[in-house]
Amino acid sequence: DTGVSQDPRHKITKRGQNVTFRCDPISEHNRLYWYRQTLGQGPEFLTYFQNEAQLEKSRLLSDRFSAERPKGSFSTLEIQRTEQGDSAMYLCASSSSWDHGSSGNTIYFGEGSWLTVV
Amino acid sequence: GEDVEQSLFLSVREGDSSVINCTYTDSSSTYLYWYKQEPGAGLQLLTYIFSNMDMKQDQRLTVLLNKKDKHLSLRIADTQTGDSAIYFCAESIGGGFKTIFGAGTRLFVKA
User: B52 touching A, CB under 8 A?
Assistant: First the structure.
């Protein structure tokens, strides 16, 4: 078990460009989450997948943001026409619905992808 | 509503106990969590407690839950300089499908 992995770890982009982040969850986990964290704040929920279905999206997820999990395994988060306010760390997490009884819906985080928009 | 609040800073001396407090608002929360984040890294799960428990102990960590007051605390015994980090309180809501985090408490441990 290699844990949740995210790629790239760091991305610097010019305003207006598109960026895409990839997340590979823990292999047996069917739930996948994207969070955003800015300096001095806790992670803010963006969206959640169970298998390939996107079940919830936050109001924070504007129409410039799109997340996919086409085969129920890895996920991508794309930000189109980036703005300076998009600069943040984008965290991916995963969990297993079958662990709900033993450990709650404990989510396990990756190391995050830092985005800097200049 | 969904809101988790924590004090922003805590400073302790090495060897002392640290107590980090948190309040939450969703009475239907089934699980509450403590995560630790070191600089530039993701969040590491420290411990969790089910809402029908009052206390959970795990080595140097003790979690106390007062469900009536919606108050959660994390006590770290014999705090070490390596415990310096940001500690996040979180609650699982919406049937467990969503986890809401506080803004984090920055723990500084003085040698």
Answer: no
Q: What is the mean pLDDT of residues B68-89?
A: 96
Task: Quote the pLDDT of residue A103.
Answer: 56
List, as one string, the DSSP characters of B24-48: E--TT--EEEEEEE-TTS-EEEEEE
Range list of β-strands (E), chain B: 4-6, 9-13, 18-24, 31-37, 43-50, 55-58, 61-66, 71-76, 85-93, 98-101, 105-110
Q: Could you tell me if A109 and B42 are in contact, meaning their C-beta atoms sit under 8 angstroms apart?
A: yes
Taking 70 as the threshold, does the pLDDT of residue A100 lie above it? Answer: no
- B24 CB near a chain A CB, below 8 Å? no
Nearest to B48 among A104, A109, A110 (CB): A104
Span A23-34, pLDDT tens digits: 999 998 999 999
